[in-house]
Design goal:
The chain has 14 helices and 8 strands. The protein is of the alpha+beta class and 270 residues long. It folds into 2 domains: 74 residues, Winged helix-like DNA-binding domain superfamily/Winged helix DNA-binding domain (Arc Repressor Mutant, subunit A, Orthogonal Bundle), CATH 1.10.10.10; 144 residues, SCP2 sterol-binding domain (Nonspecific Lipid-transfer Protein, Chain A, 2-Layer Sandwich). A hairpin with a 4-residue loop joins β4 and β5. α2 packs across α6.
Length: 270
């Protein structure tokens, strides 16, 4: 007589030992890794986190409370606290780095994302993403400092340094810049993302490069750059918007506009 085999019950997800699933129970909501990623660069206040993430105030407040309760962040101060990562929060750095690089190297193409949709993004968001965009195969053994001087909405001054295939970005002037870029913020963003053609931008005087021959596009991936050149019509629209925003034919390299007392670099032929 045939033996009847009882069907095995299907376990609930929480009953199954799955490190990936159980980790996502803790860090898998939409904003946890985003907020931790911003705080990897240093402590930030509530409004600074809002500006970097675009999260609605109520949602951000709830997420910060949850991250603090789980031991990922610790608030500093009471009235207007700044948030910093704990050791547990900083341990998420490899996950955040791998996630960001997957999206930039694979996700954009697989999801058919149009890079032109980021044309209104802030210069800060692009600059702070540069460590994920670094071409490690081209930056090994490199010691190079770029200074980015941007005017207009979202402008400022940043120092980008590459040392032995590691990229760091900080606010402020460089102590010694190998290469300096000066442009209106909208223009620089379009070039950095590969939306606008750099040669056309230089030719029209909308961005100025001083110093050595090294170029950022050699060391960093440009998400819109493909084997096909950017459409001419789109490049023309980008240039026209840049002129309207800047109100001039292009940026200036006068020291009074970017900080007195700083050395002027020799203009590169490139």
């Amino acid at each position: 007589m045939a033996r009847t085999v009882a069907a095995r019950p299907i376990l609930q997800p929480g009953q199954i030992f799955c490190p990936i699933g159980r980790a996502l129970d803790v860090i898998g909501d939409r904003w946890t890794l985003v907020l931790v990623g911003h705080l990897l660069r240093g402590s930030l206040g509530f409004q600074e986190l809002r500006a970097r993430s675009g999260i609605a105030p109520r949602v951000l407040s709830a997420r910060l409370r949850a991250l603090a309760a789980r031991g990922f962040i610790a608030p500093e101060g009471e009235r207007r606290p700044r948030y910093q990562l704990t050791e547990r929060g900083r341990a998420l750095e490899p996950i955040i780095t791998a996630t960001a690089r997957w999206y930039l190297r694979h996700g954009l193409a697989h999801l058919e994302v149009d890079p032109a949709g980021f044309s209104a993004t802030s210069a800060r968001s692009i600059l702070e993403s540069l460590p994920f965009l670094l071409r490690e195969e081209r930056s090994a053994g490199v010691d190079l400092t770029f200074e980015i001087r941007l005017s207009g909405f979202g402008g400022g001054v940043w120092t980008v340094r590459i040392v032995d295939d590691v990229c760091t970005v900080r606010d402020g002037f460089a102590e010694r810049a190998d290469v300096r870029y000066t442009a209106e913020a909208r223009v620089w963003c379009a070039v950095a993302l590969g939306i606008a053609d750099a040669k056309a931008i230089y030719r029209e005087g909308l961005m100025i490069k001083d110093g050595g021959r090294e170029a950022m596009d050699y060391y960093f991936h440009q998400i819109a750059r493909t084997k096909d050149a950017p459409p001419k019509a789109h490049a023309q629209r980008t240039h026209a918007k840049a002129r309207d925003a800047a109100g001039t034919a292009g940026p200036t390299t006068q020291r009074s506009a970017v900080g007195a007392g700083r050395p002027t670099l020799k203009r590169s032929a490139r």
